[in-house]
Amino acid sequence: MDDNISCQMKVETGDAGYVLEDVPHLSDYIPDLPTYPNPLRSNPAYSAVKQYFVDADDTVPQKVVVHEDSQRGIHFRRAGPRQRVYFTPYEVHAAIVTCGGLCPGLNTVIREIVCALYHMYGVTNVLGICGGYRGFYSKNTITLTPKVVNDIHKLGGTIIGTSRGGHDTSKIVDSIQDRGINQVYIIGGDGTHRGAAVIYQEVRRRGLKAVVAGLPKTIDNDIPVIDKSFGFDTAVEEAQRAINAAHMEAESAENGIGVVKLMGHYSGFIAMYATLASRDVDLCLIRESPFFLEGEGGLLEYVEKRLKENGHMVIVVIEGAGKELLAAESLNSSSALDASGKKLDIGLWISHKIKAHFARQSSMPITLKYIDPSYMICTVPSNASDNVYCTLLAQSCVHGVMAGYTGFTSGLVNGRQTYIPFNRITEKQNKVVIKDRMWASLLLSTNQPSFLRPKDIIEVQKQE
């Protein structure tokens, strides 16, 4: 096993093909660490709980659909409080940082980490690192207390700020060491987690008693292994508002077309779920499902057919869809450029192509309205479902950190809170499987063709 992976994940095997992909622990590289009774033993909130603590050998399977002769397969360590902890409340100096783009639920996660540390474990020293990774060495910090974070879940964005990039491992770990920080909570997507993995490795190399833990944040829901990322439910709910507006505009005009561009550089989950939820979408375009414009069976032919049948239609497209079409056209012409010479986004480009197609047919005028709600969706507060999810994620993460686990992400797997090694979170991106029944349900909902030609089907099969 690669050295980097081996220090990020401990693999244990058992009977009937059982595999535990376990997370690292402080005791792996610091011997003879003292432990202490978990303060939850005397917490009145837990007095009525039948079982305070998670059993040491509790694990959660990655796959739950099995056959009679199936092997037990990969498992992850179950999250939750342990009977013994590796930190006293007074020695903990915790830090929280948010990295990458905005996402509903960031403030809720920050709030619940702070409140879990204070109210469950008696920790009173919690810092917010301002401005992402570079905040460790170039920005101020703010002290986070339950009073400071009390109402922040009602706000969008993040009260400690965020940024992309700025990762300098040596400077970050120097700052952690100089400030005496021994618990680092990093909230971000796959790129952020790659940075977190490097920070953990450097902390381990220096032999510091400091835990590095992650919470998976991506509005596109493209992080693998976990059931879903926080903020996704809110994003789908908000996307429906844009779809409803596009549907109203399209329905109110003769041959009206509403085009809605949603988030999704690489994965089409928001578009797929919003389409299934709204039931008003006639065409959903995602990166995972190739499509073509011209000719028999193409997108333009379908749009014309749909308008003749219904008199209006709604198109949902993600920002990463049709990249190959845009790339191919930009090599041959300037039609993929806007008036300022910049490359058009896919939503504007498809709108332009549809308008040009119908301009050549004077007998069928259209009215097209284009809506891009991306930044409005990213900045809203999380809804009730995501607030509950963020709370459980944050509390599970704090339990794991206090128990000495490190180099892990707190994530939901098959409905159970688990601790997942960093390398499993960063190994690939989660994508819509267009050979799955979920995508088939979408095709039935919209009545759109798959647009897959024989060579596309062969290519999809190769990728799978």
3D architecture notes:
The protein is an alpha/beta fold. The protein folds into 2 domains: 265 residues, Rossmann fold (3-Layer(aba) Sandwich), CATH 3.40.50.450; 179 residues, Rossmann fold (3-Layer(aba) Sandwich), CATH 3.40.50. It contains 15 helices and 17 strands. Helix 2 links the parallel strand 7 and strand 8. Helix 2 packs across helix 12, helix 4 packs across helix 5 and helix 6 packs across helix 7. The two termini are 24 Å apart.
What is the CATH architecture assignment of the largest domain? 3-Layer(aba) Sandwich
**Helix content percent band:** 25-40%
Tell me the count of domains. 2
* Whole-angstrom Rg: 25 Å
Main sheet properties: 11 strands, mixed
Q: What structural class is derived from the secondary structure elements?
A: alpha/beta
Please state roughly what percent of the residues sit in beta strands, choosing from under 5%, 5-15%, 15-25%, 25-35%, 35-45% or over 45%: 15-25%
Rough outline: elongated
CATH class of the largest domain equals: Alpha Beta
